[in-house]
Structure formats: C-alpha cells, structure tokens
Amino acid sequence: MELKRGKIQSFPSKHCKKEKVLIKKYSHCEKNRVLDYINKFVNKLLNMYPLTTFAIEKLNKQKMFEDANGKLSKKISKTVWRSIHHVLKYKAALYNS
C-alpha cells in the first residue's frame, strides 16, 4: 500500500491537480478496505463465539511507541483499535452477544 502512495506522491509538480485527485481517491479506497476488513473480522469473531462477553483493554499507544522500533511504530499508528471497538460494540448487540 505504501508503495502505491509513494508513486502517486512522486509525480512531478506539473501534475499537481492530478496528484491531489489520485491521493484523495486512493485514501478513500484504503479507508473502505480497512472498514471492510474490520466488519468481516468482527462478524467472524461473533459467529465463532456466540453468547460471549468481550472485554476491550484500553491501550496506551504513547507507551507502545516508546517501546517499539521504527517499523513497529508505523504499524501501531496505522491500527484502528477504536473502529474495531465501535463495530464490535454495535454488532454484539445485533448478535445478542
């Protein structure tokens, strides 16, 4: 994913408008891909463990950044813990979990 974004951002300055449109389009596609994965993950989780109470731990991301190296910090920053929590919260009520 980063490779594609990097190629778009490396366009010459004469393609400035095209670059902005492509970045916006790519960001939208990336966001949809992540939300789709979250929904599939939560559905599978709720199907595998019906009638289960899920406990969500509040993570201290700042502490995780300090303890991690460069690549891991980047991955931690891209995680969507809050989105997973919100989707799990409303789908658990639908699944009576």
Textual characterization of the structure:
There is one protein chain. This protein is mostly helical and 97 residues long. The protein has one domain. The chain contains five helices and no strands. It has helices at residues 2-9, 16-48, 61-67, 70-78, 81-94. Helix 3 (61-67) runs antiparallel to helix 4. The longest helix has 33 residues, at 16-48.
Structure, briefly:
This protein has 97 residues and is mainly alpha-helical.
Question: What is the CA-based Rg, rounded?
Answer: 18 Å
Largest sheet: none
Q: Work out the count of structural domains.
A: 1
So what's the overall shape? Answer: flat
Number-wise, the strands total 0
**N-to-C span:** 35 Å
Oligomeric state: single chain
Average pLDDT, to the nearest integer? 80
**What is the tally of helical segments?**
5
Any low-confidence stretches, pLDDT <50, length ≥5? none
Order of helices and strands: HHHHH
Q: Which percent range describes the beta-strand content?
A: under 5%
Helix content: over 70%
Structural class by helix and strand composition: mainly alpha
Which key features would you list for this structure?
97 residues; mainly alpha; 73% helix
Element layout with pairings:
Blueprint: H1 2-9, H2 16-48, H3 61-67, H4 70-78, H5 81-94
